[in-house]
Amino acid sequence: MQRYLLVAAAVAVLAVAAFHRPAAPAQTAAALAAPSPPAVRLPRSALADEVVYVAGAVARPGIYRLASGARVSDAVARAGGLRSDADSVAVNLAARIADGDEVAVPLLGGGGTCTSARSAGSRRRTRKKKPAPPAAAPIARVDVNTADASLLASVPGIGPVLSERIVTYREANGTFSSLDELLDVNGMTASKLDRIAAYLVLQ
């Protein structure tokens, strides 16, 4: 009889323990069933870049892809840097680049075939018309489209370096249709063009 009571007590204890066993947290199952958060895609502006063509007196001319907001100095660095014969003063290394730009580094002294090139899609620069200088013009004006470098260099305000650049630019891009197009030549400014316009002609 005593053994029977002990067995019955043990069964009762096991039943009570099984009844009061804590259930698995519901949050665990819900967490396992929850879908993963969607991947975050960066906007195109955050991934934008610029493709530019670097030419002239650089170590490795070619087409390069740069981060948006890069400057001309970054493009030149990607092209291996300036050569020893590069005219670094004629290039604005701090200017920002845009997609499709051409960075043309001229040779020191204006020699070679490298010229200033307009960026793709950019507008041609123009100058404000000013009265001709009071100084008397020479007997015969110099035709910008036919004069060689030595003749252009004789025009007051041009000199040998700029005259070489004008000829090189003309050979690469064709004849000038207006004197304002001379502003696309490296080293030419609006004020300088105002001073020399009285000595020039287009034919």
Main sheet strand line-up:
2-1-3
Element pattern in H and E: HHEEHEEHHHE
Largest sheet properties: 3 strands, mixed
Range of helix content: 25-40%
In CATH, the topology of the domain at 45-110 is named: Ubiquitin-like (UB roll)
CATH architecture of the domain at 45-110: Roll
Q: Runs with pLDDT <50, length 5+? A: 42-47, 111-126, 134-139
Could you walk me through the main structural features you see in this protein, from its secondary elements to its overall organization?
The protein has 203 residues and is an alpha/beta fold. Among the domains are: 45-110, Ubiquitin-like (UB roll) (Roll), CATH 3.10.20; 142-201, DNA polymerase, domain 1, CATH 1.10.150. It has 6 helices and 5 strands; from the N terminus they run ααββαββαααβ. The chain has helices at 2-19, 26-33, 72-78, 149-153, 159-173, 190-196; strands at residues 49-56, 62-67, 102-105, 142-143, 200-201. The radius of gyration is 38 Å and the shape is rod-shaped.
